[in-house]
Automatic annotation (TrEMBL):
The keyword Cell inner membrane does not apply. Keywords: Ribonucleoprotein, Ribosomal protein, RNA-binding, rRNA-binding. Transmembrane segments: none annotated. This protein binds to 23S rRNA in the presence of protein L20. It comes from the Bacteria. This is Large ribosomal subunit protein bL21. Belongs to the bacterial ribosomal protein bL21 family. Residues 121-141 are annotated as: Disordered. Part of the 50S ribosomal subunit. Contacts protein L20. GO terms for cellular component: ribosome. Pfam families: Ribosomal_L21p.
Length: 141
């Protein structure tokens, strides 16, 4: 079973017992968090798609730790001008572990196969009247 859920503005494909690094959350370490914006659920082959989110579905997680990511170097240069700028930053992250995916109240969307009936009757095209030919007029020179 897996779900696609929005956490801190980004979408993640999560399943039970998966550890995920997300943008820094305001919750303290060791607390439980619930995310309600579940966009897709796959339960043993039965796929449920929300429009935009599935009502009643949620993903429960536990905050493991807050940390900083690897350093990202930003280097800018303009050739033949002597312009060089070196800058960098470390992103603030939160590590969470997914404890469960609940689908209470979610409507299971069954795959519906609708047959489209094609009209087999032949319809004649409407007849178009031809315009009369223009007559040559005698011109006096």
């Amino acid at each position: 079973m897996y779900a696609i859920v929005e956490i801190a503005g980004q979408q993640f494909k999560v399943s039970k017992d998966l550890k995920v690094y997300v943008h820094r959350l305001a919750n303290e370490e060791g607390t439980k968090v619930s995310f309600d914006k579940v966009y897709l659920l796959d339960d043993k082959g039965t796929i449920t798609i929300g429009a935009p989110a599935i009502e009643g579905a949620s993903v429960e997680a536990k905050v493991l730790q807050h940390l900083k990511g690897d350093k990202v170097i930003v280097f800018k240069k303009k050739r033949r001008k002597g312009y060089k700028k070196r800058n960098g930053h470390r992103q603030y992250l939160t590590q969470i572990v997914i404890e469960g995916i609940s689908i209470t109240g979610a409507k299971k969307a069954a795959v519906k196969k609708e047959t489209v009936e094609v009209a087999t009757e032949e319809v004649e095209a409407p007849k178009v009247k031809k315009a009369p030919k223009a007559k040559k007029e005698d011109t006096v020179e």
